[in-house]
Fold:
Amino acid sequence: MPDALDTEAIRARLEAATPGPWDAVMPSDGGPHRIYGIDGGSSRLTPVDERFIAHAPTDVGALLDEVERLQAGGCARNQMTTQYCAEAADAHSKIAGLRFEIKRFRWQVARCLQHFVSRTTAIEMLDIVRELNAYAPPAADQPQETDG
Structure:
């Protein structure tokens, strides 16, 4: 586990340094590199700027590590969301199939009711249909069963 990212220290170094943008120039005479502020800033490095530059590789590396960690976490969340959505769609499809089977059974029961002569049997069958309606109410285009 990497050390905690010290964003306060990084921000303090950034805010204390000479405002950028900066440009690095290597003189043609082979002398030392010079840092210039593009907006007319100082051509001489202050101790604060030197400290900022010295920490830059470590700071940038730590910040990139954190960005990658956050992106990887986002990717894992996206994969979990995709998997959840697929499972939810599968469950929805299964529920729709079960509702269809209940409706088909309801129609079969209604057709059977037309052929039974025993009033007691017909009443029992209507009770079954009512129980089925509690799980899957009939669609608007299907006739409603009556106690008739």
